[in-house]
Each structure stands twice: as C-alpha cells, then as structure tokens.
Amino acid sequence: MSRTVYCQHLDKEAEGLDFQMYPGELGKRIYDNISKEAWAEWQKKQTMLINENKLNMMEPESRKFLEEKMEAFLFEGKQPTIEGYVPPSE
C-alpha cells in the first residue's frame, strides 16, 4: 500500500517514498514532505552534480555541498546550476 504525502517540492499530494532515503533529521523531513516523483528528479540532478563537480562522496565537504543543494532544490525550489545543462523546455 503506497502512502501519500503533501509534496513541498511539487506543491501537491503525491505518492510518498517507501522508506527514509536519507539519514537524520533532514531524511525524516524528506520522507514526510517529499514525493517519489520529486525525489527521482533530485536523483537525476544529484548524478549530474556529482559528475560535473567530480565529487568524492567519501569526503565530508562533497556530502555537505550536495546536501545543501538537495535541501535548496527539494524545499526551496532552487535549481542547482549545472554547467552545460539546459533543462528541457515545457
């Protein structure tokens, strides 16, 4: 049985995540307030950010950088800047 959340990113009711995808307080906030759809959007952006910035996820600075971008994207609607990436026009 899927759960529904009011997704703060999409600003609508949507299918919620099956389990907490991220640790800690932020992870709980994401689980409670972010939909599968918005999380999938973030995953694509995250991959691009990791590749573009050649992030090493073993390094705390890289994780902190990504976490800040993730929070801004999911909760403040801020698109991360990705060099050479042009979002598809709607």
TrEMBL record:
Any GO MF annotation of the entry: iron ion binding
* Iron recorded as keyword: yes
Q: Which GO terms of type biological process are on file?
A: cellular response to oxidative stress
What GO cellular component is one of the record's annotations?
Answer: cytosol
Report the InterPro entries cross-referenced here: Fe_traffick_prot_YggX, Fe_traffick_prot_YggX_sf
Task: Look up keyword Disulfide bond and say if it applies.
Answer: no
Keyword set for this entry? Iron
Q: Which Gene3D superfamilies match?
A: Fe(II) trafficking protein YggX (1.10.3880.10)
* Family affiliation: Belongs to the Fe(2+)-trafficking protein family.
Describe the function of this protein. Could be a mediator in iron transactions between iron acquisition and iron-requiring processes, such as synthesis and/or repair of Fe-S clusters in biosynthetic enzymes. Necessary to maintain high levels of aconitase under oxidative stress.
Protein name stated in the entry? Probable Fe(2+)-trafficking protein
Please give the organism.
Alteromonas halophila
